[in-house]
Specification:
By secondary structure, this protein is of the alpha/beta class. The chain is built from seven helices and 15 strands. It is about 25% helix and about 25% strand. The chain is globular, with a radius of gyration of 18 Å.
């Protein structure tokens, strides 16, 4: 299986429509790949919080339309990164979760789109862990609540986004749901790049799965991006790693390696926690 990660540069002086057209052209260049992956929030910029409401779109909006044509032209499965999704079409500003954690109409979500080689929208994933603590994404967006996998002919994808990478229990859930390849689009800050590569390798080793972690290059609202998109094998080897500039990373993967690794080193079978309620210590 051939996978291409498009580490697109985000310059906020470029309009979202221009960046969509440019990303679509890069996707079309990946004809011959089986899977193409774009980063998190590349149409607007992961840290361009002030633009989120204005640039929000529905899953069938302008990003989908541009990416649908590109996926169909290239004949590839396309993880189109994520968009700022508006949950309703009435144009209202986001309200955010209420005191009970509910997300009323108008809430924004950080939503990934997965398209088939025919350009059809197959699945969406709303980011579960929102970054920012008491500001930014954490206050502007609702939290997703569903673990999402996508079955491809060669492998089953498990979907996560950026900050999700810090929460291993999410990835355990994806593996329990059948994931063999973990796809993580991100807008990861350069100042925490060491965490990015460390966590990507950890998620691969502990879950005995491929990790395809696709980051952005450039600067979002003054926040320098890490770049260094990375592909990690189930045993933890780094198969490919990008630099800091815009770059396309293409790697040939052997889906059978996941099963072989899990058979030869069956650590997942020795799990004791999370599978059943443990007896309380008295």
């Amino acid at each position: 299986m051939r996978a291409s990660l498009i580490q697109i540069a985000v310059d906020l002086d470029e309009s979202p429509d221009s960046r969509r057209r440019r990303a679509a052209a890069l996707v079309r260049e990946q004809r011959g790949a089986d899977l193409v992956v774009l980063p998190e929030l590349w149409p607007v910029g992961a840290f361009a919080y002030e633009s989120f409401a204005d640039e929000a779109e529905t899953p069938d909006g302008p990003t989908f339309r541009e990416m649908s044509k590109a996926a169909s032209d290239a004949g590839v499965w396309l993880h189109a990164g994520s968009i700022v999704e508006r949950a309703t079409e009435d144009g209202r500003a986001p309200n955010g979760p209420d005191q009970n954690g509910q997300t009323p109409d108008g809430t924004l979500y950080n939503t990934s789109l997965v398209l088939s080689p025919a350009g059809e929208l197959v699945r969406t994933y709303r980011k579960i862990h929102r970054f920012g603590f008491d500001k930014g994404e954490a206050t502007l967006m609702g939290a997703g609540a569903e673990l999402v996998t996508v079955r491809l002919p060669e492998t089953t994808l498990g979907l996560a986004t950026c900050y999700d990478l810090r929460f291993p229990e999410l990835f355990r859930g994806l593996v329990d749901a059948g994931a063999e390849t973990l796809v993580v689009p991100a807008g990861w800050p350069a100042r925490r790049r060491a965490h990015w590569t460390l966590l990507a390798r950890a998620r691969a080793v502990e879950n005995q799965a491929y990790v395809l972690a696709c980051a952005t290059a450039g600067t979002h609202a003054g926040v320098g991006q890490s770049g260094h998109s990375i592909v990690v094998a189930p045993w933890g080897e780094v198969l490919a790693e990008a630099g800091t500039d815009e770059e396309v990373l293409t790697v040939d993967l052997d889906p059978g390696t996941v099963a072989t690794t899990r058979e030869r080193f069956p650590a997942l079978k020795d799990r004791r926690l999370g599978l059943a309620t443990p007896t309380a210590i008295r």
